[in-house]
Amino acid sequence: MSNGVVNGTTNGHTNGTTNGTANGTAGPQYVQATNPHLKTQAEDFLYHFGISKTSGDIKSFKDIKIVCCGGSAGRFEMYAKQFGKDSGIPVSKNLSSSDRFVMYKTGPVLWVNHGMGVPSMSIMLNEVIKLLHYAEASDVSFIRIGTSGGVGVAPGTVVVSNGTLNGLFEEKHTQYIRRQVVKRDAVLDQSLAKELYDTGLRLGIPVENGMTLCADDFYEGQMRLDGAFCEYTAEDKFEFLKLLKEHGVRNIEMEATGFASFTKRANVKAGIICVALLNRLNGDQVTIPHDDYIKFEFRPFNIVCAFIQAKIASL
Ligand SMILES: O=P(O)(O)O[C@@H]1C[C@H](O)[C@@H](CO)O1
Ligand SMILES: O=c1cc[nH]c(=O)[nH]1
């Protein structure tokens, strides 16, 4: 076994449910968990949600069409309840019995938090993807609704990602597996991005689209000057931000490449929509007043809600 870089597959072989129909037409697109070992396990306990595959109600997730996720548990409880109120759809209780993540169901929409950074989010995605796979959910879209640092965009602007870059400016997600660096494509669904962007325009919410840099941390990985440690100059920082702009990057967060890669492997559409809390060209500290913060964090949510309501109406 070498210690080199390998290109991982984006879609593995299927496990159980297949996509398409016998006569070759598109058919339902099932959520795929392609791990062949899962076939040999009668039971699967989704530890970070406290949900068991063999529990009687796993099939209650079969109708899920949209999974909305983002870092904060409190924000996602608030979003789920607000969506239930606005759409007149009853909100479930918190379906997660672990304190790691929350999960709420409003009809065909699931609201889940994922914590900060790809390692935390990947646990959520692995378990929610398996949940929806076991439930035989089909034609599912995942949308990450979040916050970010803007690159040349004003605070409060919503950025709809049309692509993701890792710290080497590659459209790849990197994992260490078996002492190897495994790189997988980290691309997003362009039609979903366009629908979200158009919805933002229609609602009159400040919205832009562009690439999103996925950093591995909030401070040095995003070239901030205000972390506990810093071994570069202010000039280096601005050089970096300038380079980001040249690559079409409009915002920086900490999940985008992992989100794009895991969702692709699961055969689901993925979109990322994040409000910019600050313009990094003007500083590093997030100091917006609380009222503005609340107003800003509802902007991407309002766009997603309008998008979902249009989808539900057409179901
Ligand atoms: O959950 P959100 O999108 O607000 O998370 C962003 C990216 C990082 O996880 C976190 C850093 O503050 O904000
Ligand atoms: O600057 C920011 C703001 C929110 N989230 C980030 O990752 N970076």
UniProtKB/TrEMBL annotation:
GO cellular component, alphabetical, reads: cytosol
Cite the GO molecular-function annotations of the record: uridine phosphorylase activity
Q: Where does phosphate bind?
A: 100, 144-147
Natural source organism: Panagrellus redivivus
User: What's the protein name?
Assistant: PNP_UDP_1 domain-containing protein
Q: Taxonomic lineage of this organism?
A: Eukaryota, Metazoa, Ecdysozoa, Nematoda, Chromadorea
CDD domains under this entry?
UP_hUPP-like
Q: What is one GO biological process annotated to this record? A: uridine catabolic process
Q: Which Gene3D superfamilies match?
A: Nucleoside phosphorylase domain (3.40.50.1580)
* Superkingdom as given in the UniProt entry: Eukaryota
Name the segments for region: Disordered. 1-28
* Comp. bias intervals (Low complexity): 1-27
Q: Which family does it belong to?
A: Belongs to the PNP/UDP phosphorylase family.
Q: Which InterPro entries match?
A: Nucleoside_phosphorylase_d (IPR000845), Nucleoside_phosphorylase_sf (IPR035994), Uridine_phosphorylase_euk (IPR010059)
- Annotated residues that bind substrate are located at 222, 224
